[in-house]
Write a structure and sequence with these properties.
Blueprint: E1 10-14, E2 21-26, E3 33-37, H1 50-61, E4 66-69, H2 86-101, E5 110-115, H3 117-128, E6 132-138, E7 154-160, H4 168-176, E8 179-185, H5 196-207
Helix pairs in contact: 1-5, 2-3
């Protein structure tokens, strides 16, 4: 039994791929649902990583459904990790989340957040899916920015204050995109060993601003 104020993700096997893809899903009534794309597994990236978990929990607490997943060859996902397969894995995960949100509408609005290498994967996914309404790039590599100048939805780029990456290209893109912004998390480094709570709040409050009128 889940008591009020508690959150219970359920393990899922994500269909659509030729091997089992492991995920953790939490339901929610608000839209959009959030897909969390993990960092590179060779850098410790998995759906159990602290940044991935904090983002999922923060958005779950705000009432939105979330899905985080493991790439092939990571955790209980089948096969072997291959960078050539990550886009397809993210796509089937997005399809699964959309079906969980609304089985009747495969184009239900979704949000996507990617971390590091995952930010590049998330950006490519958002470029080809018109129903992605929010894109969050956390500690992205410069290649994550490619092709986003015409992104017509909400774009948030979040980097740590101590991240040595040059901020200028990120700030420039945020200015060019119709609804874009660059957010610098005070006290955080590139790995977000600090500032996780603040990062989660940025994502959750972008999806569901504080004081937003509730109409049930």
């Amino acid at each position: 039994m889940v008591r009020r104020g508690e959150y219970l993700e359920r393990a899922v096997v994500i269909p659509g791929a030729d091997v089992p893809i492991e995920g953790l899903y939490h339901h929610g009534k608000r839209r959009p649902g959030l897909l969390v794309v993990p960092p590179h597994p060779e850098r410790g990236g998995s759906m159990e990583g602290p940044i991935v978990a904090e983002l999922a929990w923060a958005v779950t607490r705000a009432g939105h459904p979330t899905l985080r997943f493991n790439y092939r060859g990571v955790g209980a996902s089948g096969g072997a990790f291959d960078p050539a397969t990550v886009d397809a894995t993210a796509a089937v995960a997005a399809d699964h989340l959309a079906a969980c949100c609304d089985p009747e509408d495969p184009r239900v609005p979704l949000a996507v957040v990617g971390l590091g290498f995952g930010a590049t994967v998330a950006a490519r996914l958002a470029r080809v899916r018109a129903h992605v309404t929010h894109l969050f790039l956390v500690s992205p590599e410069p290649e994550a920015l490619e092709g986003l100048d015409d992104f017509a939805q909400t774009l948030v780029i979040a980097i740590g204050q101590a991240d040595p990456m040059d901020r200028a290209p990120f700030a420039a893109l945020a200015q060019r995109v119709r609804d874009g912004r660059l957010t610098v998390i005070f006290g955080a480094d590139r790995a977000f060993r600090r500032g996780l709570v603040q990062l989660g709040r940025v994502v959750a409050e972008t999806l569901h601003p504080p004081g937003e009128l509730e109409l049930d």
